[in-house]
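Repro:
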Amino acid sequence: MITLTAVESAFPDTTVTVEERAAQLGRSDVQTHMHRTIHGLDTMHYDAGLDLYDLVLPPARRILRATDPQAVRYLIYGHALHGARGAAPDTPQQIRQRLGLGGATAFAMTQQNCAIPLSAIDTAGALLRADGEPGATALLVTGEKPAPEVAAAIDTVMIADGAAACLVSLGGPGAQVRSFATRTRGEYYQGLAGSREDFRSAAQMRPKVLWEIMREAVDRAGCTLDDIEWIIPPNQGYAFWEGVLDREPVAGRVFFDNNRRFSHCLAADILINAATLTHERRFSPGRPSMFLATGLGWTFSAMVVVPIPEAG
C-alpha cells in the first residue's frame, strides 16, 4: 500500500495583506474587496526576490534530514503551470542536484494544474511497486514562482508563495493511501483562455463531477463520506466550493483554515494543508480523510488517506 511517510511545507518570511498583494497584482478595489470578503483571504506569504529553488527546497531538505537520502529512487517535481509559462526543462534535475540525490531518477509532472500532487503520489507508488525494491522511496516536491505577469493574469485567485514536499513509500509508516479516483474533462482544456460559454458550462459541470469523484474514492476505500474526518482541498477561496463542500454530509469538515493565512500556492496547497493538520496533530489515527483536488482544464481527483498510529 502507498504510504505518505512524511509531509512538510515552507514559506518565505515576508507576509503581505490582501490589499498589499492586490496592489502588486494590479487588482481593482472591487476585486480586492471580493478576495477579502467573498473568498475569505486575509494574509499570505510573498517575496518578490525569492527564486524557485529557494522556495521549493526547504521542505524537501527537512524531510531528507529525517530519512535516508540513498533510499530515494525518484524525485518528482509537480507543478501547475506548463508550456512557456511553466518550469524550465531541467528544473527536476536542478532540484535533484541541489538536494544531493544523485542516485534518483528526476522528472516533472504537470498538465493537471493544481490537481497534480495526487496524480504524482499515485505515479510514485506505481513506480515503487514496479521496481519492487524494499525500502525505496520517492520524494515529491511542489511549489511555483510564476512571473508577475502570469500571477496577475490568474485573476480568479490570489497567487502567493508556498511550497511543500512529501515522501512516498510502500508499506512504510505514515498515512496509508486507500484509494485514488480521478477524471479529466478535456473539453475545457483552454482553462482561463476559454470562452464565457466554457466558463458557464464548467461551473455547472463542476459540482456534479466533484460529488461523483468523492463517492468513487470512498467506495474504493471501503468507507462512506460520513466516515471522513477532514476534506482537504486547495486554497481556492470559499466561494469556489459553494454548492459542494457546504452540503451534507461533508459540511463543517472541510479544512479551510489555511485559506485566509496562505492564499493559493500553485500545486502545493493540498500538501501544505496536510502538513498543517499533521504538525498540529489534528488527524485522528485510523480515521480516513480525503484530499480533494481540482485543476483548471479540468481535472478532478480525490484520494482517501488513513493516518496510522505510530508504534508505541
